[in-house]
Design a protein that fits this description.
The complex is a heterodimer of chains A (195) and B (210). Chain A contains nine helices and no strands. By secondary structure, chain A is an all-alpha fold. Chain A is extended.
């Protein structure tokens, strides 16, 4: 380093350029590593705060459901519905009923439990895997219905907009919920079927 | 509790001639086994999730989080301003491009803050459209909504159990989700405008009456 500074008086242009390059490389590598490190820290944080608690919760529910036989009873209830288009439409209309949808919404807990239940039935071969796609939409027309005022407030909406927005979204779900199932059903042709 | 049941199991294997305890004690023992069995079942499920999902998820989350940091949140602000324009050609920007990018970059629930760029009459429809995308996106980009992964993962687990690949399902979920949010945005906007119009008429007639 000291030789660099002494020679910089005569051959200064090249050395200064080289130094600058070193600084740029050092800084950008540091930036990349720092960003990745911070991203990793965020991810671990997310997993500990959001994902692991839900896994524990789901594991308890699944344990109880599987051991007590509630699962089989529930599955027999859901199976005929989830294995056909009219049944899926019925589920989606039920979930989209404006009074029920905000109750079914919070944390998507109900959708997640039903999702796990349906998953086990698909795995057991009771429900055609092709129905996985429409089922994903059938169990979810209530998404975010509990959160409309907060969501609109995050978008800096006026109170009047919230007053109109809540019923507007809820009513819209009644139309778009079943429509989504039909679209998903149409899109599910050729999914997991060799025929 | 687990030790007693383990000891009982060991005793049973060592001396197969020992009869199960009968009477009240037998009933209680049966209950105890069912009780602990419930949580063992849950524990097995948890282990399967932990080893099956978490490692990939952690790496993926890290990569996407880093990507988002490099690109920066502020880049999509401009898009928000563009989406506010009226006209039919901006429908796909408002209810498809903007919600998808907001959910990807800002994730649930901060994605809804992008509504601030839109006029009041579009806000409910934008919210509807954005919130409807927080699940379809989790098939491929779980960072967007890590708290609600099991809507997709629950069903996907069944597909995996059958030995089928998930890529097809995840992609279709993503694309059907896009069609659905566009439709949802348009329908909700229509309903909102209709209701706002009616509210306006009402207040006018009330003023006229007063």
């Amino acid at each position: 380093m000291s030789t660099n500074t002494t020679t910089s008086t005569n051959g200064g242009g090249a050395m200064a350029g080289f130094n600058k390059l070193l600084v740029v490389i050092g800084r950008s590598v540091g930036g990349v590593v720092g960003t990745l490190y911070q991203a990793g820290r965020d991810s671990v944080d997310t997993i500990i705060r959001n994902i692991l608690p839900f896994m524990a919760f789901i594991a308890v529910i699944v344990g109880i459901i599987n051991k007590t036989g509630i699962g089989d009873a529930l599955a027999h209830l859901i199976e005929p519905l989830a294995g056909s288009l009219p049944g899926l439409l019925a589920i989606s209309v039920f979930c989209a009923i404006p009074v029920l949808s905000p109750l079914l919404g919070p944390g998507a807990v109900i959708a997640q439990i039903v999702g796990v239940l349906l998953g086990t039935r698909i795995g057991a071969g009771d429900i055609d895997p092709q129905y996985a796609l429409p089922a994903l939409f059938a169990i979810n027309p209530q998404v975010g219905c509990d959160f409309i005022p907060v969501g609109l407030a995050l978008g800096e909406a006026e109170p009047e907009t919230v007053e109109i927005g809540v019923p507007a979204v809820l009513i819209s779900r009644l139309i778009t919920g079943p429509t989504a199932v039909v679209i998903a059903w149409l899109a599910s042709f050729g999914l997991y079927s060799n025929a | 509790m687990p030790f007693t049941s383990m000891a009982a199991a060991l005793a049973a294997t060592a001396e197969p001639t020992v009869e199960d305890p009968g009477g009240i004690w037998g009933t209680l023992a049966g209950w105890a086994e069912a009780f602990i069995g419930t949580f063992q079942e849950g524990g097995n499920f948890f282990t399967a999730l932990f080893t099956g999902i978490l490692p990939t998820l952690l790496v993926l989350l890290t990569a996407v989080n880093a990507l988002i940091r490099w690109i920066g949140h502020d880049k999509i602000d401009k898009l928000g301003e563009m989406a506010a324009r009226p006209g039919i050609q901006y429908y796909p920007v408002r209810y498809l491009v903007l919600p998808v990018l907001s959910v990807f970059f800002l994730t649930n629930p901060m994605a809804y803050t992008m509504g601030r760029f839109l006029p009041e009459k579009y806000k409910p429809a934008f919210y509807d459209s954005a919130v409807s995308y927080v699940h379809p996106i989790t098939g491929i980009f779980p960072h967007a909504n890590p708290g609600e992964l099991f809507v997709y993962l629950g069903i996907a687990a069944g597909i995996t159990q059958l030995g089928l690949g998930l890529g097809d399902l995840a992609l279709r979920y993503l694309f059907v989700g896009m069609i659905v949010i566009l439709l949802r945005g348009i329908v909700t906007e229509f309903i909102t405008l209709h209701m706002m119009g009616r509210r306006m008429n009402q207040s006018e007639t009330e003023e006229a009456a007063a």
